[in-house]
Write the structure tokens for this entry.
Amino acid sequence: MRSRVVVTLLAVLLTLPLVSPARAQNALVVSIWGGNWKDTVDKVIGKAFTAKTGIPVEYEVGGTIDRLAKARVAKGNPLVDLNFTTTHVARLYISDGLYEKLDLAKVPNSKEIAKEAFRSDFHIGSWAYVYTIAYRPDLVKEPITKWSDLWKPSLKGKIAMPDFDPSHIITIAALMEGGNEINWQKGEAKLRQLKDSVAAFFSTDAQSQDLMKTGQGPVQVMLSANAYHLLEQGIQVKIVQPADYPGIVGIDTMAVMAGSKKADAAHQFINVALSKEIQAELVKTLRVGPVSLGAAVPANLKGQPGIFSTAAEWRDRGYIMNDEARAKNLPAWREWFTANIVKK
Amino acid sequence: MRLLLLPAVVVLAVFAAALASLFRWSLLEFIPGSLQTGGLTLANFRGVLAPQYLDAIRDTIVLSALTTALTLVCAYPVAYALARTPSRPVRSLILVLTLAPFFTGAIVRTYAWVLVLGNTVVTWPVPMLFTERGVLVGLVHFSMPTMILILAAALSHIDPVYERAAASLGASPWRVFRRVTLPLSMPGIVSGGLIVFAWTLSAFPTPELLGGGKVKMIANVVKDLGLDSFNWPGAAAFAMLALALTLALLTVVGRVTAGRAT
């Protein structure tokens, strides 16, 4: 008898990790990156949504691809109702039929947002940022004011850039040579000239910030929100508004999962997220650009890289890549980048 | 009795199913910009035979071999002291220092090396951070505790009487070590060497952080293909290729060293 109890207990203990965590039955489940992203979305959007609707919000956190893989496995019977991801990765969700078409009649606040934030019939922008040049003036004596400055011999061995997604620098090199992300090959030779200037490549935001803090990569092609975060920590970083070509815009997006039983609530969540008040709060907390054109922007951030508050700024101060071209070309870009720039 | 085998069979079945799924993915056509896959193809295997991927395999094998050799050289004296010191406080101190890195975790240890190797604490005569040299230092440090413990266990099983007998017959300390201690500790050297070699083949955080994206080992390439390029079939093909190579290599190393261990 005792052994049976022990075996049963063991079986229960062994199967515990296989059981999904219990969720409140009426909760809206939101999938998002962990850390500051989840905390801020919960604090700023989630709380306001619950206060307005009475529906609690729970979160499924993870990396971009972990969450994509999970969504694919749960296709048709999604574990989450609403998803946050970057606009080009959203294309992969769409290609696999994982998103539901948005009903903008249920999102009245979408009338107030920049037209660039409408990424497709399935996904809509939540905030924006740019990949631009950021550098430590204490370690780089000559001021950097434009993308072409990266090619200066004095910056040899000082530059760090992302290798998980080289689309920004590939597009900039192509733009400099009269091309763009579609005919990116035009910038190949130009980009090869940059090879010896690169000190390191980074795969995560944390690595990027560490390289800047330690001075191992004092000049970076950097996510603007990360640079603002370093400034808050007291690291003297100069964030460049390049004079020759604009920074490359990144837009994080929201979408309703296909098959969600709480699609209406998910639309309401998106509507709350796009309200001017919530957008203004996101700008203050995440140091990102609002997609809502009327959202208030603090004076110290107004006009700064990645913070677009008017239709004109959206149009003129950032380069928005074609999502589909980016999603399709990324594997080829990475392969070329690894073979020609990363490889010793 | 057969029922007792059931857990092992279940575990094996799970591993076999995972491997079969990986193999199936490696044969599916990759469609850029889509999660959908096409029909069956061998193109993924042709793709991962590109020079940059083969370079990663070569670098992995070279770094694994160097890590094993250097770890052995650095760990042996520490293991010897641990096994032979008559002083309990000294033995405890060595044991604590050996085990201390286990309590910090691989990521914390590797970040510490980023600071040490990056000219912020020490000024190095040659670049260390984001080079193979730096990765090698990190891998050796990571492998040391395990190697020390395995070698110390092997050395503690050698009866000191043999060494005393050799010395009493006129052998110098170096000759005693070379002709008696070293051969008798060979089982520990082989076990430790195989374990360090095998796990260095699959190293990920050390080359990821200390290599600065410039030093790629097999696991880093799998991550690059699968998670950064969204090329799951390509990642599966590279993983299969690396797995086959690793198994072949370990078989060869195991056979070469098996004779010496006995």
In short: Chain A touches chain B at residues 63, 65, 68, 72, 91-93, 95-96, 160, 163-165, 199-203, 207, 210, 214-216, 324, 327-332, 334-335, 338-339, 342-344 (CB under 8 Å). The radius of gyration of chain A is 22 Å.
